[in-house]
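**Discrete fold encoding**
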Amino acid sequence: MGTLHYGAPSVAVPIDDRTLAHLELVIVAKLRRRESTSLAVIDDNTKRRQALWLSPAITLRFEYDGPMPEINKAWLQELVDSANSPGGLRLLPEPGA
């Protein structure tokens, strides 16, 4: 299980390594272009939805328990499309999984 560390002081958001790796690629690409977006995550235990505002001014750190997983390009494209939509980046299920 990986962790997205958000803000300073940081809040830890647990996300499995495979999903986090795909999110990292999308988020870093947005931030390189100095673009902001929201990220919607749902807590697996409480089912509560959280929305995080991601911008170049916010400190982020991606922490993994294992090596970088293989990237699913179709899933990556779906996440990019989501991040560029008015609703912001959402954790979508991996196609074919």
